[in-house]
Amino acid sequence: MTTENEKRIWQTVQAIPFGRVACYGQIADLAGLPGRARLVGRCLASVPKQGWQGKAVPWYRVINSQGKISLPAGSEGFIRQTQLLQDEQVVVIGNKVSLKVFQWQPDLHELLFHLDY
DNA sequence: ACCTTGACGGTTC
DNA sequence: GGAACCGCCAAGG
């Protein structure tokens, strides 16, 4: 089944633009679930491969508040995430992304216009 | 029902 | 920076 929280989180992640990243806590806040960053991580692990409602869910654009990839370093997922980010011109150096440069700064008006909840 | 485990994060030292 | 601490809470044992 799909929970309401998963819907919100997946949908919010879909709003992250190409070439930008967001952190777990940021997604939680925007999804209306403040303080629940861990939930975001869990939900991203269960994203359907075919995406959600016809659109891909760019899970790899979500990293932790320190700008680091949270998957185990060297794991298959870690490698894939790094590759996908670099494919979008996001610079990953020493397992780190500069949030200063690449963090998504959403336009709240536009975001509220697109989200369903 | 109880305990542990996380793709986490803010605070504090 | 970084480490210890605490808050968070859905799943799985």
Overall strand count: 2
Oligomer: single chain
**Could you spell the SSE succession in H and E letters?**
HEHHEHHH
Helix content range of the residues, please?
40-55%
The number of helical segments is 6
Q: CATH-wise, what's the superfamily?
A: Winged helix-like DNA-binding domain superfamily/Winged helix DNA-binding domain
How does the overall form come out from the CA principal axes? globular
Poorly predicted regions are none
Largest sheet: 2 strands, parallel
What can you tell me about this protein's structure?
By secondary structure, the chain is mainly alpha-helical. It has a single domain (4-114), classed as Arc Repressor Mutant, subunit A, CATH 1.10.10. It contains six helices and two strands. The protein has a two-stranded parallel ribbon. Helix 2 crosses helix 3 (37-45). The radius of gyration is 13 Å and the shape is globular. The protein binds a DNA duplex (13 and 13 nucleotides) through helix 2, helix 3 and strand 2.
